[in-house]
Amino acid sequence: MAQKVFIDGEAGTTGLQIRDRLIGRKDIELIQIDSARRKDADARREAFAAADVAILCLPDAAAKEAVALAEGLPVRFIDASTAHRVDPAWVFGFAELARGARDAIAGAKLVSNPGCYSTGAISLLAPLVKAGLVAPDEALSINAVSGYTGGGKELIGEYERGEAPAAFVYALAQKHKHVPEIMKYSGLSAQPVFAPSVGNFAQGMAVQIPLHLNGTRSLSNLRDALAGHYEGSRFIAVTDAPARVVPTALNDTNRLEISVHGDAGNGCAVLVAVLDNLGKGASGAAVQNLNIMLGADEGAGL
């Protein structure tokens, strides 16, 4: 019997990509409401009542309202917004994060989808903090570039109309909404300096973390710790360091690739994660989490 899924916020960028990944599947029945009623509380509650899983592709405040609207119903949630990512009542939907993460997602009623920047940063930092190669209180910086689709409809419109700059750096006041989840799920106690940027390409992302090598870490043991953590992973791989890192290299996939760059002689290294900000950084991850929750093939639709 097909599992019923309702995408609340289907008309947005993330929602549309989730729908495209699900619409042809025989094991999924999509519940849709008339576009004229998509903000109607009664129509939405009816959809929540009919669904086995609801995926929220909404602004933070609207995601919280949606959960309240469905109070008392047996529907399970995947929230693609920032609203619940550090809420202890919600399971963080990063299946590759740690042993037991996949089982926690499978049994959860409430799953919070990771953010795109945080997926890249956590994928690099969490295994190294666990291995003792990065100290939780270490002074770190995270630099990243994303495609403009991560900025929502207004920014997408600017680029599509040719009104936006070729690239820009933003959120330098150090209050970016992804920082709390990066700290919590990487195991950091000191806030990293985060400098995100946007380039004139629709999808794709590269996250970079510079490190100084020291007596406890080297290029080889950094790579070995990361490779060991993700050994056997279906969607995350540690690769040889390319001469050029291309943020768009994994577009339209649910993959994430990690590489370790640097020079042992001068003691400098850079960790890099490449992913599609709309794939493993949003819609792809939501579908992966949905598959785990429904007991389906984890790669179905991906």
List the helices and strands and how they pair.
Layout: E1 3-8, H1 13-22, E2 28-31, H2 41-50, E3 53-56, H3 60-69, E4 76-79, E5 91-92, H4 101-106, E6 110-112, H5 116-130, E7 141-147, H6 152-160, E8 167-169, H7 179-186, E9 193-199, E10 205-212, H8 219-229, E11 236-238, E12 256-263, E13 268-275, H9 279-294
Parallel strand pairs: 1-2, 1-3, 3-4, 4-6, 5-6, 7-9, 11-12
Antiparallel strand pairs: 7-10, 8-9, 10-13, 12-13
Helix pairs in contact: 1-9, 5-7
Q: How many DSSP H or I helices?
A: 9
Q: What is the total number of structural domains?
A: 2
Helix/strand structural class: alpha/beta
Helix content: 25-40%
- The number of E-state strands comes to 13
* CATH C-level name of the largest domain: Alpha Beta
Structural Rg:
19 Å
Q: What is the strand arrangement across the widest sheet?
A: 8-9-7-10-13-12-11
| Overall morphology | globular
Taking pLDDT < 50 over at least 5 consecutive residues as the criterion, the unreliable ranges are none
The first-to-last residue Cα distance is 21 Å
Q: What is the fold named in CATH at topology level of the largest domain?
A: Dihydrodipicolinate Reductase, domain 2
Largest sheet: 7 strands, mixed
Second-tier CATH architecture of the largest domain: 2-Layer Sandwich
The pLDDT mean sits at: 96
User: What proportion strand?
Assistant: 15-25%
The CATH homology group name of the largest domain? Dihydrodipicolinate Reductase, domain 2
The sequence of SSEs as H and E is EHEHEHEEHEHEHEHEEHEEEH
3D structure, described in words:
By secondary structure, this protein is an alpha/beta fold. The chain has two domains: 3-114 and 282-294, 3-Layer(aba) Sandwich (Rossmann fold); 116-277, Dihydrodipicolinate Reductase, domain 2 (2-Layer Sandwich), CATH 3.30.360.10. The chain has nine helices and 13 strands. It has a seven-stranded mixed beta sheet with strand order 8-9-7-10-13-12-11. Strand 12 and strand 13 (268-275) form a beta hairpin. Helix 1 crosses helix 9 and helix 5 runs parallel beside helix 7 (179-186). The longest helix has 16 residues, at 279-294. The model has no long low-confidence stretch (mean pLDDT 96).
